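A.,

Following up on our hallway conversation. Structure tokens first:
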């Protein structure tokens, strides 16, 4: 008897960076500020108003507001600023790090996007970067120094994710110290970012996501110079976010690791991401979907079992491949969007013909 595989239901759901249906996801766009109306930059690649302590207590974009503060008399700022530097050189000298070079990131620039705003990636799946593209730089020297307030609706937003990148000051300081920091040189040492969910009063609600910028494990220090995506969905619905840094390189006064990190493409959505489902109802022999016959001739039955791509690839099925599964999914309407990763799940039942 010839075996026939019945295609009963296709479920497609987005995974990766853009996890909500079109129109639901809100992505930070640094090219569209509200306050200030535009950014100008110094030759060193940082916002000219970084040390302005009077006019910009927040840096506002559509739906996002980032904390900013400064003491111009002391040439000191904290919270967030905007940079285009992308400088990833090592400026540790005889007297420590040259603080005039605090504006860079290890990736070497801001994240490149296409005309639709989708992140462009190289052959290894890493975000493409370019010096001169803006990114947010945070100096988080205290628990409440760096915050993002999400506004524009009465209800909270579902946290989706954000790209982050380690600062060169921290990166090189972690290797061998920087004159103040001693470095991460012992087993178990680490430097990490903690992103906290804020409630309607902009207080920490106890939910937190951790991202390790650096770890010393198995006798070696590991830290990535690339922009890395942090999944914020475990935070649930939030009214804002707060960012803190933690390091084992610390003394009784606090952390010695340079308290900088870069941020871009923060994403939230108005409702929690949900699967996009398409139910194919199997009827009489004349029933068609996208030109495909769905009748008794093909052995259709109304019972089904759920299989995934991975299960299909591992199963000993000779007459069907995951490529054909993807093709069928396309024909039945579960079309993947450009620059969007989707996993396809298909209900199948193995039947035989009536020989």
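Then the amino acids I'd put at each of the 355 positions:
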């Amino acid at each position: 008897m010839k075996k026939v595989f019945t295609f009963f239901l296709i479920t497609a759901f987005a995974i990766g960076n853009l996890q909500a249906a079109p129109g639901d996801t809100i992505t930070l766009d640094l090219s569209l500020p509200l306050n200030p109306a535009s950014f100008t930059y110094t030759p060193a690649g940082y916002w000219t108003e970084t040390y302005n302590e009077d006019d910009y207590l927040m840096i506002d974009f559509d739906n996002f507001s980032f904390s900013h503060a400064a003491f111009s008399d002391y040439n000191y700022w904290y919270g967030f600023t905007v940079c285009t530097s992308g400088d990833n050189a090592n400026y540790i000298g005889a007297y420590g790090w040259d603080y005039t070079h605090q504006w860079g990131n290890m990736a070497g620039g801001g994240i490149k996007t296409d005309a639709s705003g989708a992140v462009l990636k190289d052959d290894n799946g890493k975000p493409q970067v370019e010096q001169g593209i803006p990114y947010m730089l945070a100096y988080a020297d205290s628990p409440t120094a760096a915050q993002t307030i999400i506004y524009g609706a009465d209800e909270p937003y579902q946290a989706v994710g954000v790209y982050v990148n380690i600062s060169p000051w921290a990166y090189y300081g972690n290797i061998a110290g920087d004159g103040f920091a001693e470095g991460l040189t012992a087993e178990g040492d680490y430097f990490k970012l903690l992103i906290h969910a804020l409630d309607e009063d902009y207080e920490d609600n106890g939910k937190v996501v951790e991202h390790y910028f650096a770890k010393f494990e198995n006798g070696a220090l590991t830290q990535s110079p690339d922009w890395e995506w942090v999944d914020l969905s475990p935070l649930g619905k939030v009214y804002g976010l707060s960012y803190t840094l933690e390091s084992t390189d610390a003394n009784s006064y606090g952390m010695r690791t340079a308290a900088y990190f870069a941020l871009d493409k923060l994403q939230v959505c108005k409702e929690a991401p949900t699967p996009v489902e398409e139910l194919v109802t199997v009827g009489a022999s004349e029933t068609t979907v996208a030109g495909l016959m769905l009748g008794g001739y093909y052995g259709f039955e109304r019972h089904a079992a759920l299989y995934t791509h991975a299960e299909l690839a591992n199963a000993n099925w000779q007459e069907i491949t995951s490529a054909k599964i993807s093709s069928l999914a396309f024909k039945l309407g579960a079309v993947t969007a450009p620059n969007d990763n989707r996993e396809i799940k298909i209900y199948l039942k193995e039947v035989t013909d009536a020989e």
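Residues 1-23, 275-312, 314-355 have pLDDT under 50 and may be disordered. Curious whether your intuition agrees with the design.

B.
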